[in-house]
């Protein structure tokens, strides 16, 4: 199945207890695509300014990422983010943001991508996520991410979005904020009542859980690793693994959803192993299979 | 195998978003024994004052808990604790403590218990845990719990204890404090280097993990439930399920340890479903088996 992602491309500066990485490539669409392309070809939609220091053709060389949806906008500047992690690195503190081109019109989905079947709308204003979705003819499975900022400031748009997507991927705190529930199981069920047929709640180093309208529930720990260098992009890498596997199988049944979460978890475990995209860039198919088997081995009884 | 527990008996007053329970029975040895007795007979060692409002024979009636190690000390008062939980209820805040009899000499292990094979030393001063341990002739498998207070104030005694026990059960924050490590996998390995052949790290609503010297690692989510009324005693109920199952099987191999953690997780899931011991008191063997199967169902792929 064809898989399209819309999201950000960023110039990131990240500080963790393990080092410092200045002006490295980041952004939700980038992290997502690095992971998803391990499983499936990816159609990439995003926008940068003419100042963008990265050659995305080179970044994604050999990975099956179709960049015909990449817009290099004249007179605009690329999104920049700088952040730092301390202690157990569970939460980034943002040191600086320049939205730049992200505060302008979203990119257009090119004609040749409009028949995309599987779609991931990375975190942005829900109104823009709907606009992007409306450019697609008849997507089969649409997933979206969101964040606290939109839950608070754009809840009406978010409700409209939730009614039009198949799966919401969000983190624990966001799920609680969105639903007003303090229990995660109750929050998950409340989100299903809002529209999506699948919800995945990410719990950072504690893993993730999935509930769907068929009543299935799956709880998965994170991959146990002592190599955590930079958590930036872990959530988008996870989503990339999930959607990449779903697009590969073309099925949204319980087995596929569970396996997709395992692949997402494995992709995230590589992503956090180095700064920027370096952790996942070196990964090969057999590395993925090997950690899939290891995750099964450490969780089964 | 015979299973002995030493720990506290408390008069608890607990406030959670779901209600208030005044002067109810609590304490580590009580919660442990309620859970462990679902799997194995328990030999109970603990001390109360003459003011103790509970009849422990009645509390444990029909559960196979041998109370010949219960001392009712003349002129002493029973341990009291009051605490409250807010929000996601992950952390109790202590509103009041009266150590009373716990600040005096520990109870004596009665002669007829000194041949105990499996032993759980619930949280208390590590020096006292060693004293209790020395009263046993040749225990086969000794597990202990500890807490931040002892890690900070009694680290020398704790090191001596770690050298003499087979398994340490502690929570995430304690594991990080004890080892100075921020990564849990590294913390677990560091603890194994300190002596025990098995370490179990409890992660509250996120489940638990186990590492042993044979190189096995097991990661288990908590039982997903929306019924969380009072988390008091969850950790001791978990330990009770773990030790109860291990004593029942008489084996400390990988399969038994993993299954023991599942039983501990299931026991804890019942314990948190009501105040004090009410959540676990009504549980029968088939309830345990049913949640064991459910936990397998929601975690397997």
Give the largest interface.
A-B, 36 and 36 residues
What's the β-strand tally of chain A?
A: 13
Mean pLDDT of chain A: 95
The share of residues in extended strands of chain A comes to 25-35%
Q: Give the strand order of the largest sheet of chain A, numbering strands 1, 2, ... along the chain.
A: 5-4-1-8-9-10-11-12-13
Low-confidence parts of chain A: none
**Distance between the ends of chain A:** 34 Å
Query: Could you describe the largest sheet of chain A, including whether it forms a barrel?
Result: 9 strands, mixed
Structural class of chain A: alpha/beta
Rg of chain A over CA atoms, rounded to whole Å, is: 18 Å
| Anisotropy-based shape of chain A | globular
Quaternary organisation of the protein chains: homodimer
Relevant terms:
homodimer, 301 residues, alpha/beta, globular
Describe the structure.
Two copies of one chain form a homodimer. Chain A has helices at residues 28-36, 56-59, 126-134, 148-153, 155-162, 172-179, 184-193, 234-249, 254-271, 278-281, 285-299, and strands spanning 3-6, 10-16, 19-26, 42-49, 65-73, 79-85, 92-98, 118-121, 141-145, 167-171, 198-202, 208-212, 217-220. Chain A has 301 residues and is of the alpha/beta class. Chain A is globular and about 55 Å long. In chain A, strands 5-4-1-8-9-10-11-12-13 form a nine-stranded mixed beta sheet, sandwiched between helices. The A-B interface holds A 17, 87-89, 176, 182-186, 189, 203, 205-207, 209, 217-222, 224-226, 228, 255, 258-259, 261-262, 296, 298-301 and B 17, 87-89, 176, 182-186, 189, 203, 205-207, 209, 217-222, 224-226, 228, 255, 258-259, 261-262, 296, 298-301.
């Amino acid at each position: 199945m064809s898989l399209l992602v819309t999201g950000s491309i960023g110039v990131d500066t990240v500080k963790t207890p393990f080092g410092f990485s200045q002006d490295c490539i980041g952004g939700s669409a980038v992290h997502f695509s690095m992971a998803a392309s391990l499983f499936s070809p990816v159609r990439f939609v995003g926008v940068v300014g003419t100042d963008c220091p990265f050659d995305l053709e080179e970044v994604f060389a050999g990975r099956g990422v179709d960049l015909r949806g990449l817009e290099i906008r004249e007179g605009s500047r690329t999104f920049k983010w700088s952040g730092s992690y301390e202690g157990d690195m569970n939460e980034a503190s943002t040191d600086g943001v320049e939205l730049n081109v992200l505060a302008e019109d979203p990119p257009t989905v090119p004609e040749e991508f409009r028949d995309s079947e599987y779609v991931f709308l990375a975190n942005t204003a829900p109104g823009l996520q709907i606009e992007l979705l409306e450019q697609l003819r008849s997507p089969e499975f649409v997933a979206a991410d969101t964040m606290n900022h939109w839950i608070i400031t754009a809840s009406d748009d978010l409700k409209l979005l939730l009614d039009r997507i198949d799966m919401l991927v969000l983190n624990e705190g966001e799920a609680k904020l969105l639903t007003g529930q303090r229990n995660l199981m109750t929050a998950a069920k409340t989100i299903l009542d809002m529209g999506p047929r699948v919800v995945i709640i990410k719990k950072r180093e504690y893993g993730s859980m999935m509930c769907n309208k068929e009543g299935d529930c799956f709880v998965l720990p994170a991959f146990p690793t002592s190599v955590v260098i930079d958590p930036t992009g872990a959530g988008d890498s996870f989503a990339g693994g999930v959607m990449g596997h779903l697009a590969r199988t073309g099925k949204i049944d319980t087995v596929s959803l569970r396996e997709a979460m395992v692949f997402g978890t494995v992709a995230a475990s590589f992503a956090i192993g180095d700064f920027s995209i370096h952790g996942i860039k070196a990964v090969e198919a057999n590395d993925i299979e090997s950690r899939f088997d290891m995750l099964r081995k450490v969780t089964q009884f």
